[in-house]
Amino acid sequence: MLKIDNLVVAYGGIEALKGISMEVEEGKIITLVGANGAGKSTTLRAIMGLVKPVSGAITYKGSNLLAEKTQNMVRNGIALVPEGRRVFPNLTVLENLKIGAFCRNDEKNIKEDLEWVYHLFPRLKERTWQLAGTLSGGEQQMLAVGRALMSRPKLLMMDEPSLGLAPLVVKEIFNIIKEIHKQGVTILLIEQNANAALHIADIGYVMETGRISLKGTGHELLANQEVKEAYLGKKAK
Q1: Is the pLDDT of residue 235 over 60?
Q2: Backbone angles phi, psi at 188, to 5 degrees
Q3: Taking a C-beta distance cutoff of 8 angstroms, is the pair 183, 120 a contact?
Q4: Residue 83: phi, psi to the nearest 5?
Q5: Is the pLDDT of residue 83 over 90?
Q6: What is the domain partition of the chain in residue ranges?
Q7: 77-91 average pLDDT score
Q8: Sorting pLDDT into bands at 50, 70 and 90, what band is 69?
Q9: Angle at which helices 137-149 and 167-182 cross, to 10°
Q10: What average pLDDT is seen over the chain?
Q11: What is the 3-state secondary structure (H, E, C) of the chain?
């Protein structure tokens, strides 16, 4: 579905991505884990056309994604839940969700999708007319996910959805990710919380200082001693 081949991205001469290659298969949950500053968010920014690579290729369903404008990504079926949630604080929950459907005009289906989002996140339904800026961090994250779902994405990319959230809310968010996946949405998950991400991932990639250092199934990486020591806080015995 999405393929990255030998991608190099630099900021002011310093390479943030040093020739990474990875693949997001349709119908899978793919996770990219690594420490802060490893290049995970830069990878998403390159996919979305927010940074221009020095070299390499990104293809989506066989088409050259680097030739597409950022504003066309949603029409192509790609949605991003950005790091830090980025909801519109002075708009209501409902208005934020409707913005997610900005490129659609199928009113009946939009209403159905709105009900689906409210089913996934009952708290959002309770707060339909509340200003997004007054929601808790967890509720804003739910709103950011719901807003992305309103575009009916084929590929949903999520940048650090657990960042700054309480453990109980993190668990809830990851359960929702699994539920979204069951509905046929392919997911690319960028996470520092390697433990939570790898538990739900079909395939995982480990990124270190702009390079992909490991690839495997979620279970394989959870059992890998290097991953345990570096990201799961478990020392070798």
Answers
A1: no
A2: -110, 115
A3: no
A4: -60, 140
A5: no
A6: 21-51+67-77+156-237, 83-152
A7: 86
A8: confident
A9: 10
A10: 89
A11: CEEEEEEEEEECCEEEEEEEEEEECCCCEEEEECCCCCCHHHHHHHHCCCCCCCEEEEEECCEEHHHCCHHHCCCCCEEEECCCCCCCCCCEHHHHHHHHCCCCCCHHHHHHHHHHHHHHCHHHHHCCCCEHHHCCHHHHHHHHHHHHHCCCCCEEEEECCCCCCCHHHHHHHHHHHHHHHHCCCEEEEEECCHHHHHHHCCEEEEEECCEEEEEEEHHHHHHCHHHHHHHCCCCCC
Which residues 6+ apart lie within 8 Å of 127 measured at CB?
Answer: 93, 135, 139
Determine whether domain 21-51+67-77+156-237 maps to CATH 3.30.470.20: no
- The residue among 37 and 222 whose pLDDT is bigger is 222
Tokens coding 185: 């949405």
